[in-house]
């Protein structure tokens, strides 16, 4: 309960997000919901989401390298959660092997043409759940864990949601995929953080910056 209260600026809007998206999934047809979500496209949106979606790709691993110079603990938790979330997602993808929107619509609604963005390849398989969404929620939740500012925690939540929305906007995933992906990301990350929070690792509060400072001194 203490953990939830401390990071409530991320968790509370996330719970609301899960409830709202769950209602959308339950009360709407899969194809109709996707078309409605993906229909809000603009030229600026195409450019933005084409690149921003990669925040759920390799960007978190770049931050791992950067954070080694700030604090080992954050870099370690970020690395472990990213690898763990990725493993869970890959297992689920292969258990279900759901078709992605481009394949689903080609088979069930061949007359409907999805919005395509130049340079963005549309994948056909392993739609469920969204790996980019899971990685993004894991990434931003870890960042939220290391700030006491509520407005920053809330900002991190919205930045994670934007990655999830980008996956539907780009027609790489269905809404259910991003919902479950977010649950995997938040669930796995919360569990690992609670575990590491109880561990006494004094070395983890150091950084490569300290190492270089000592050598130069």
TrEMBL record:
PANTHER family annotated for this entry?
AT30094P, SPHINGOSINE-1-PHOSPHATE PHOSPHOHYDROLASE
Record domain Phosphatidic acid phosphatase type 2/haloperoxidase: where: 75-193
Protein name per its UniProtKB record = Phosphoesterase PA-phosphatase related protein
The record's section on SMART domains has: acidPPc
Q: Give the classification, highest ranks.
A: Bacteria, Pseudomonadati, Bacteroidota, Bacteroidia, Bacteroidales
Residue ranges that the Swiss-Prot or TrEMBL entry lists as coiled coil? none
Q: Transmembrane residues, as ranges?
A: 7-27, 47-69, 74-92, 130-147, 154-170, 176-196
The highest taxon in the source lineage is Bacteria
Q: Which InterPro entries match?
A: PAP2/HPO (IPR000326), PAP2/HPO_sf (IPR036938)
Q: Which UniProt keywords apply?
A: Membrane, Transmembrane, Transmembrane helix
